[in-house]
């Protein structure tokens, strides 16, 4: 196995593993909607279930439509990224790592949707009464992967400008 594939699969397994272990721990040790302050006025561990997507997207849709749509989108994203990586052998290490974070996060949330019909969220950041929507390890991996993709796009663009 080449180095990029190794990085991809190790990152994928670590993200899914840490995501699922953290969700199992939260759901087995806390009551739904319970909250434990970690940093007063800034960060709590709060156990919630999100039936929709990021920022409550699709929470008002029917449960069947929401489940089918979000499962299909997650599965399609994973398949498309895997297809891209198998066809694009010239993908650099940063791109490979970014995509592994995104696939790992998508897979972690997909597992929740398949098992529970919703996603376990528990990271609750806030200032005063202004709360960022609760999220989880999978969401964090997807966000970091997306930022790294943007960094990679700017690196490629600035590299092509110098040539």
How is the secondary structure organized here?
Elements: H1 3-29, E1 35-39, E2 43-50, H2 63-87, H3 93-116, E3 119-127, E4 130-131, H4 137-162
Antiparallel strand pairs: 1-2, 2-3, 3-4
Helix pairs in contact: 1-3, 2-3, 3-4
Describe this entry's structure for a reader:
The protein has 163 residues and is of the alpha+beta class. The chain has one domain (3-162). Helix content is 63%, strand content 15%. The chain has four helices and four strands; from the N terminus they run αββααββα. The chain has helices at 3-29, 63-87, 93-116, 137-162; strands at residues 35-39, 43-50, 119-127, 130-131. A four-stranded antiparallel sheet has the order 1-2-3-4. α1 (3-29) packs parallel to α3 and α2 packs antiparallel against α3. It is globular. The model has no long low-confidence stretch (mean pLDDT 91).
């Amino acid at each position: 196995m080449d180095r990029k594939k190794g990085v991809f699969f190790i990152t994928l397994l670590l993200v899914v593993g840490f995501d699922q272990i953290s969700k199992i721990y939260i759901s087995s040790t806390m009551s739904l909607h319970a909250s434990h302050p970690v940093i007063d006025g800034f960060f709590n561990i709060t156990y919630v279930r999100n039936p929709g997507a990021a920022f409550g997207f699709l929470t008002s849709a029917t449960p069947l439509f929401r489940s089918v749509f979000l499962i299909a989108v997650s599965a399609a994203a994973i398949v498309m990224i895997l297809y891209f990586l198998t066809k694009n052998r010239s993908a650099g290490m940063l791109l490979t790592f970014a995509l592994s974070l995104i696939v790992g996060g998508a897979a972690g949330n997909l597992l929740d949707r398949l098992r529970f019909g919703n996603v376990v969220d528990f990271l609750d950041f806030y200032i005063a009464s202004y709360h960022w929507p609760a999220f989880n390890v999978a969401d964090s991996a997807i966000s970091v992967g997306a930022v790294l993709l943007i960094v990679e796009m700017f690196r490629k663009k600035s590299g092509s400008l110098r040539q």
